[in-house]
Amino acid sequence: MKFLCSFPGIGSRQWPLGVLAVLLIAGCSTLSFRGQSPEPAVSTDTEENRGPRLVAELTIPLGLTYQKGEAVALVTGLAGTGSDPPNSSRRNVLLNEMQRHDVKNPNQVLSWPSTSLVLVRGYIPPGAQDGDRFDVEILTPSRSETSSLRSGWLMQSQLRELAVLGGSIRSGLPIGLAAGPVVVDSLFKGDDDSVYQIRGRVLGGGVVKHTRSLGLGVRSKAGSIRSAMMIASAINKRFHTFEHGIKRGVANPKQDDLIELDVDSRYRNNLVRYMRVIRSIAIGPRAAELANRLPDLERQLLDPATAARASLQLEAIGNPAVETLRKGLTASQFEVRFYAAESLAYLDEADAVETLGEATRRVAAFRWHALTALAAMDHVSAYDVLSELLHMPSAETRYGAFHALHTRNSGSPIIAGEWLGQQFSLHVIVTRGEPMIHFSRNRRPEIVLFGHQIPISPPQFLSAGKRILITSTEGGRLKVSRFAPNEQTSFVECSADVESMIRAIHQLGGGYAETLEAVRAAKKRGLLQVRLAVEARPRASRRYRNTRIEETDTAVAQGSQPASPLPDLFSNRLDSQKDAKKVKKKRAASQTVEEEKPGFFVRMTSWFR
Fold first, then answer.
1. Residue 368 near residue 339 (C-beta atoms within 8 A)
2. Between helices 395-408 and 353-362, what is the axis angle to 10°?
3. Which residues contact 593 (CB under 8 A, 6 or more apart)?
């Protein structure tokens, strides 16, 4: 089992280059911490002058960063759009990999127009378990003559942490595997720009090889086995998990300066919030003096300036703080009501549902957080609200509600779908709202039809990839035909509706990319009179105004950003890396994720930069 690690002294320029290379190649075997704190010094106020100490004052979080894996790999199955890569270190890396897999005549294979050398990148999220899946991005090198990756298949490759040392590329141990069908960006974006033809993704194509752990590093001045035990005891009074049916605490002190953490199931899609709640837990002899703490936290909760922080501390107290949080639901300021409701949701209190539903419907800036909180609840009222949100006009509200319901219970009757082969999942939602077709670009290849029997006008001809053609019959039905060299032409007739067309494309060997291409073409030619959306997920950079609440999919130009930490339910790391520069200057200081210093690989020059 491989965990995130920390090396003392890295970044201080005291380590010889050769030693760094050895560390990189060897990889990390344990989650560890050695007393270097990236946070300001802890206040030296005496116990008499303030409330109980919080876990945050004695610890820093470990394991919340994404782990970046990269590889040089081969895409096959291209329709003559590949190229023979030029001589380079990347070509040599790929040749060595092919030889390890006993590929015969690897240089000849690379010269085929049906293959292309590509660069692969993926991010393994915090808390990932062995076998979990993640998206990988595919792109061609700058000198490549490949004109398109459409219809390509990424051959299995090993993702490793990479760094440039002394002018050479050095790699660590494999952290994941990647393989699967490539969906080029031009299909997602509806744009035939040549740049989008040579970039794409394999949705869910990455597989985690090693479980990643979360933990707390105990600050050097407080580091002792007694301190670690005291902190773990306070955490375990609040959070527990079950192992083989046996209840146990989530915190496990491993060293005098390290506490490993299991994840409470209610926070599995919001790890940053989980860590902040844990670090808001009180410790020490005054931790149990709730009669003194609750009135002060209530005053802070009702003040918009301190409501977010107070709600986390009340959430950290747990059930004894429920009544105080309920008082926040009656506040005149919406953000106070929202922060109180968000904390109540993670305590599975039904009182949270009404405010979270309102936030999802009417406040775009809070939508991301509200849907994640509703998805974390077991209470039936949360299910009812999410079900109603499927009918809203907003595309991201509808799909966000679907995604939250799927996360909550993928077998729920109102959203349950089926996998067509192992290509993609298809879901048909009965809705009172206008019909809509949604394609995912994150986590898994998935088509959601909001509406039953969505009609499509029979076309004279419509392409679904290079080998599938859709035409009309005399009776107004669809004829879906497959043409391939050295194969007899096959066809399927079906009703003129989108679901039937999708199933016919699949029956003839078409996959997610072919289906997306057919639907986009039908929409462009006016054969489909419904809304088409791709990855209509809530965005994290939105702002809100205290006096302005409106139902919209667009951001309010001015105002504040939510102070709650960003949840993982709708995150897309590949997109967020591209958007980072756009939002960096706009992000409020309170929005910044609290985390350990950047790791060794993060500080090194990236291969893709």
1. no
2. 140
3. 64, 272, 565, 566
- Distance, in Å, from the CA atom of 577 to the CA atom of 582, rounded to the nearest integer, reads 10
Please report which helix (H) or strand (E) contains residue 221, including its range. Answer: none
Domain ranges of the chain: 67-208
Q: How crowded is residue 504: how many other Cβ atoms within 10 Å of its Cβ?
A: 23
Which residue in 495, 416, 424, 468 sits closest to 181, CA to CA? 424
Q: What string of DSSP letters covers 260-272?
A: EEPPPGGGTT-HH
Which element (helix H / strand E) includes 462? strand 462-463
* Residue of 119, 133, 74 whose CA lies nearest to 101: 74
pLDDT tens per residue across span 441-454: 888 899 999 998 89
Report whether 216 contacts 59 (CB < 8 A): yes
Cα torsion angle, 340, 341, 345, 349, sign: positive
Residue 520 has what DSSP assignment?
H
Mean pLDDT value across residues 562-579: 63
CA geometry: angle at 9 spanning 8 and 12, to 5°? 155
Residue whose structure tokens are 């419907």: 361
pTM of the predicted protein model:
0.79
| Confidence class for position 546, pLDDT limits 50, 70, 90 | low
pLDDT of residue 167: 64
